[in-house]
Each structure stands twice: as C-alpha cells, then as structure tokens.
Amino acid sequence: MSDDRELHRAAKANRERLAVAHREVVLQEEAKNAVDIRENMARLKELRLAKEAQETRTRISKANQRPAPKPGRSR
Predict the structure, then answer these.
(1) How far is 4 from 71, CA to CA, in rounded Å?
(2) What is the pTM assigned to this prediction?
(3) In 3D, which of 25, 46, 23, 43 has the Cα closest to residue 35?
(4) Distance between alpha carbon 25 and the CA centroid of its chain, in Å?
C-alpha cells in the first residue's frame, strides 16, 4: 500500500511540475499570438485607410472634371 501511495504522490508531483512548465509555454504562445493579431489588425487598418484615401481621391478627381460636351445635331 505504501508503494502505491508513493507512486501516486510521485505521479501527482510530476503532473504538477509538468503543468507549471506547460503553463509557461502556453502563456508565451498566447502572448505571441496576441502580438501577431495586433500586427495583422494594424496591417489591415493601414490597407483599409489607403483604399479609402484612394476612393476619396478618385471621387474628388471625378467631381473636378468638366462634363463631356453633348453631341449636337449636325446640320
């Protein structure tokens, strides 16, 4: 019986030791994922703003153009 208890205690201690080590790895991975997500969001925001700026320039350019002359009747 005492061997059984010692084995259970050793197994429990080993699981706890591994859990602490695994927790650190998981936290590091989560921190890296959070950084990656923020970088991707910043990249997408930059692309969106560039697209909106281009659309605005196009609208302004079209608004500044003179309307095309209407074809008249030839006599």
Answers:
(1) 101
(2) 0.57
(3) 43
(4) 21
Which token pair is 40?
């991707």
SS3 of residue 2 by DSSP: helix
Mean pLDDT of each 10-residue bin along the chain, 75 residues long: 83 85 89 97 98 96 83 70
Q: Which two tokens stand for residue 50?
A: 């560039």
pLDDT attached to residue 74 = 65
Tell me how far apart the alpha carbons of residues 12 and 18 are, in angstroms, rounded to a whole number: 10
Measured CA to CA, the distance from residue 60 to residue 43 in angstroms comes to 26
Spatial separation of the C-alpha atoms in residues 23 and 16, rounded to whole Å: 10
